[in-house]
Protein: ADP-ribose pyrophosphatase, mitochondrial
Amino acid sequence: MIHLPLRRHLVGPIRLAFTLLGLPHTVWTSGVRPAISCPSSYPFPTSKTISADNTSYCRRHSTMPSSVGPHVKSRCPQYPGSNIKRLSVPDDKVDWTQKWPEYNPVSYTAPSVLNNPAWADPDIGSSPKFNTVDGAVDRTSFEGSYKVENGKPLNPCGRTGLAGRGLLGRWGPNHAADPIVTRWKVDVKGAKIHHSVSQKPVLQFVSIKRKDCGEWAIPGGMVDPGEQVSLTLQREFSEEALNSLSSSPAERAEIHQRITNLFKSSGFMVYKGYVDDPRNTDNSWMETVAVNFHDDLGNSVSELPLEAGDDAGQVQWVDLDSSFPLYANHSHFLEIVAKERKAHW
Structure:
């Protein structure tokens, strides 16, 4: 990622290190593609009349353009972080209701998951309780009840060409939370800057550059077992975005006050549901809640310096603009935010 001249005079280093996700986007096409290619920034078209997206990812097939097949990122030919190749799944065979007796994908679970870290399930023999809250682990899906076959949950959006858990810790849904922190772009006098073409005020959001793929993205973090999403959003931003764990007591107090001021509002719910993520498999998948927290007066986190964390190559405030390439479908999140805030896109 390159440094862009997007920071105002009060901005300097905020620590960010998040597990990142993309926004889902789905369509069905009448044709059949034998294979899927996944460039670094897939051109997912979006509607001009977009709104807060709280509907089921898997049920929006008829509302999206037909130039892109369904469940695209989840069918990338090579599974990330490995040499594992997915079985090629054509568009018309994604849905589990489509008969495909020859379907026999390779099963893969990453060594980092098989080592049984605290954030991962043990092997399927432990008999997790699906479609419910299993102890402290929420195994319900925003997409509704999902099927379980031979003791394993089935991806509610269809076949991915790979069985097992891949890089994901949980069988079934893996829940994340994405805080989209925004502010107005202003000049040295504090006046909002308007885009020269749209004449609308320009929003900026906190963005990181992922170390794994080198793409800009919205920060995010996994929801801990038993943790409420609202606490995840604030915890991730406090510990990772502001490096509060390594700050002095006085610095932690200031960080806590600024974060509390920003996150005490309910925020704007941008999206809740399934994520078309390249880490997804037939038996494990990502779901997220994305919430926009807006520093309208520019006097909370806007004045704190930004600094990339361990999992992020770089971090900075970035202008919201449809031409700016982002990881997966993250631009779809931001288009919703721009419309809600009546800002340039």
